[in-house]
Amino acid sequence: MSTILAIPDLHIPFEHPDALEFVCGIRDAYKPDIIVNLGDEVDQYAFSLYDKSPDSLGVVDELDEAVESLAYWVEEFPKVKVCYGNHSLRYLKKALRAGIPERLLKGLREFLDLPKSWEYAPEWIIQGIRFFHGEPFSGPQAPNQMLATRRQNQVHGHLHGLAGVTYENNGQETLWVLSCGCLIDEKTYAFHYTAKARKKPVLGVGLVVDGVPIFEPMR
Prior knowledge:
alpha/beta, five-stranded mixed β-sheet, 5 helices
């Protein structure tokens, strides 16, 4: 049996307080062979272009909290394949706007104090399945758009309110997209923008067990 665990958006240090315990429980129950983080493992709220809460942490304090929290995840999950997410790379966008070339900056893994066993890539192809963050797709039709763009089974995060499996049959083949929701704490100031959203975040993780996609909600 082959099992892949896909951990969606944590947005550390704004992850749900029960996220680590929940994911560890899923890991212990399914005993995955491979673990993929689908991106936005950190939020980098302090680098956001949008108006910020006056109560928000500064860049250094947020980074310190993120590094401290990530250390617990590394302890439980020492080997992870990580997808780059849009929040993960906020610091690069900030540097670009300031005219600072990327060659002068630390890499994401370095400034987050992550081990080399946490490997980064834009996407991972594992057993023929595409694991990626989920950009540039949005809305409820995102899974269908993903399949229209690439005829391949896919697993994604990014879309916090979208979770579950979408199947599509074009008469010649049946493919699926596994939407994994997120693991955020929507009560924190980083997610005040969701207060009036019609669709709220769905918490959980994704699994692919012997090629079968599964969404496990956080109960």
